Amino acid sequence: MHGPFTHLRRLLLASIACVLGAAALTYLVDPLQLFRASHLAAFYSDDTRVQNAGLIRSQSFDTAFMGTSLAIHFRQSDINRALGVHSLKLAMTGSNSRQQSFVLEQAIDRGARRVIWEMDDFIFVDAADIEADPYLSVDLYRRTAKGIASYLFSAAMAKESLFVLLRSIPPLRQPLTSAAPFLPVKFALSDVDVIYALPREFDLARDYNAKKALASFAYITNPVRSRFLGEGYGYDAMVRHFEQDALGLITRHPDVMFDIYFPPYSILQFVAMRDASPETLKIVTDVTAVIAERLAQVPNVRLHDFRAIKAVTHDLNNYGDVIHHSPVVDAMVLKWLASGEYRVDPNRPLASLERLKAQVEAYRVPQP
Amino acid sequence: MLFNSYPFILLFLPAVLAGYFCLGRRSNLAPVIWLALASLAFYAIGNWEFVALLLTSIAFNYGVGHLLIVAKLGAAQRKSALALGVVGDLLVLGIFKYAGFATENVDALLGTDFAIHVLLPVGISFYTFTQIAFLVDAWRGQVAAYALPPYALFVTYFPHLIAGPILHHKDMIPQFERQETKRPYAHLILCGIIIFAIGLFKKTCLADGIQPLVALAFEARSPSFDQAWLGALAYTFRLYFDFSGYSDMAIGISLMFGIFLPVNFNSPYKAISIVDFWRRWHMTLSQFLRDYLYITLGGNRRGRVLRYVNLMITMLLGGLWHGAAWTFVVWGALHGAYLCINHAFNALVPDVPAIFARPARIAGAVLTFIAVVVAWVFFRAESVSWALRVLCAMADPSNIVFGREEIAGLVLVVIYAALVWLAPNTQDIMGYDHGNRTVGETLREGRLRPLLLYAGSLVLAFGILGIQSHSEFIYFRF
């Protein structure tokens, strides 16, 4: 009996040693750069909800750039060039206003004096409270004991740390760095500027064209699926979330300038609602009317509305589906933000919305 | 409570083990009651609202079993008692599992709106099937009288309660009654921990590790050829490691208590035919469907045509057992059709000459795997139309993306394929022999001991490090 119990003890002690060893490796390599700037070559991940916690700690910036998938392909270098700022892109695909507001608050606490915020109406739908959100570890951002433990005692992070370590060995550095984007590792990007950015050589015409936009329109307006158009939309909840998450953040930080913009969806997005879910269209226009009117009264906000720029929104070749525009439009967005050309007049906050409504009313979908 | 959670590994399991062996010093019955109560607590922690249902189900089936075993009933009365038991079980299962599905279909047919939303009690399929088998065997005269505590433990035994394997009373109750299992046996505990560690690693590092790739096929609106294949293969491997990991953990935990659970999983993707696949995948369910459904329907004793009809019925019901949705019906129908084709092929085509045996086995394995992957698409998809969209993408090689993400996905899939086809399975590594109640004989003899011990510690460490806060078992809700 004595022998096997010795083996049992040995097994358990060796396991504890392995767990502690893995945690020590992650702490020393620190792939997220949560504790210190990397001693080794720094690498970044497209997993923005996790990566942002490290970026806020490791990068220097004066401007935070926030948004959803509509803002995910921007490059920080382009933002800096167009707006003359030192930016940090924190956009997260499919994010809601709770997540965005929380992450922005962290960025402001770390020194952001300006926020550029792509504000999608969908971000205000009802979702989990930030403290209970399974998709965003608030503890990691706050660096609580739980957050740090979840970071250090993680097999996935130990694997990444080991890979970062291997990449720091001179003979392996070049081949592993080149291969990293094609391997199943998260921290594969060697330049913070390329997080979620499309490659320079990306074939835009293949992924953004009228055929795809119209196919997407047909798909979402199909009677079988059209009910999804209004899924999650509720006027009261959306206004409440706007007040709490967006306006609450803005009024808490009067010294920070907020450049907020409504992104240039294709006109098909609104037409889809008009044809298949008019009640959703009403909620969207009513909610964005409230947003525009409320933000018009806040001194540290500049609101830009790009939704009624016909030359862009009616040219379906700019789109990969009914809402996502190509990086060509990203460049235009930066230009418009810099020039203030489509800034909403605080005295007439609903003017651009009225133009949009008229366009939606008049638009006829091209028939194949 | 999940096996792959810190509270289970660090608190629940050690506490239950300690209580079990402490009580085992004094009596043979107390540890059984303790384990049954611990199992109820395990169930109640996640599903307290269904504890009463579980207890009612135990009391009802034990009562009917008592009528069949102890009471001196005539043949007709015994048949009525069996019918009462089985119908009662199926009625409860039907209400909780299929009422919503049935009304949905009635609504769709008649244009009515009688929506019923019934929360599915976790594990109901497992504890219902377990007890139906007990009643049928009692009716057949194959059951000795059992006391209530071991019977209750047999139904609620927490290593199997919420995701299987489906247990057989003849296998389990005698083990619960044995005196030897109540004393800590270091060799079994050691082997149990290693088997648990392998299962935990499969679940937390392998199954959860490939899970994000599944979205490529099943959450994209129009996946490309490569995305559809990668997503479908990722799901195929995820399900494999999820289920296999759970089965290993169940066996490992049980072994720490000195109880041998049946093997439920035997490298099914190495199968060389679909018949072989079902002898290796969810083996206890296959046995249950064979013994209590297929054979009851007449099996292959009523001619070739009826044999195929029986096969189709069995697999259709097997599909519905997995979930109340048309996707599961299609999945079951596909496997029924595969089995019919397989049996017809075996009947019509003569044995291949020895020289072609190996290539024929390889071809059979490839064909079986592809057939299984196609069926998994229905198993995973939200709807039949969604599954068809994924399958259409898998059949359209003209639309290929093969970007950075897809290449990384392919590397991952190749690694998983190598593990599935080249690595030995847990029972081979540990020499687990359920029939002979032996395990880890090479470990006991000292051969490979340091290697297995330190490999086991590494696997356990990474299994624990891989635990994520939101990770469920796919077989949880069946």
Kindly describe this structure:
The complex is a heterodimer of chains A (368) and B (478). By secondary structure, chain A is α/β, with parallel strands linked by helices. In chain A, helix 3 links the parallel strand 2 and strand 3. In chain A, helix 3 runs parallel beside helix 15. In chain A, 51% of the residues lie in helices and 8% in strands. A five-stranded parallel sheet of chain A has the order 3-2-4-6-7, with helices on both faces. In chain A, strands 1-5 form a two-stranded antiparallel ribbon. The longest helix of chain A has 28 residues. Helices cover 71% and strands 0% of the residues of chain B. In chain B, helix 3 runs antiparallel to helix 4 and helix 14 runs antiparallel to helix 15. The model of chain B has no long low-confidence stretch (mean pLDDT 90). Classes of the chains: A alpha/beta (368), B mainly alpha (478).
Q: What class, by secondary structure content of chain A?
A: alpha/beta
- For the termini of chain A, the CA-CA separation is 80 Å
Largest sheet of chain B: none
Helix content of chain A: 40-55%
Shape of chain A: globular
Could you give the count of β-strands of chain A?
7
Task: Tell me the distance between the termini of chain B.
Answer: 16 Å
Number of helices of chain B: 20
Tell me the total number of β-strands of chain B. Answer: 0
What is the strand content of chain B? Answer: under 5%
SSE pattern of chain A, N- to C-terminal = HEHEHEHEHHHHEHHHEHHEHHH
Largest sheet strand order of chain A: 3-2-4-6-7
Helix content of chain B: over 70%
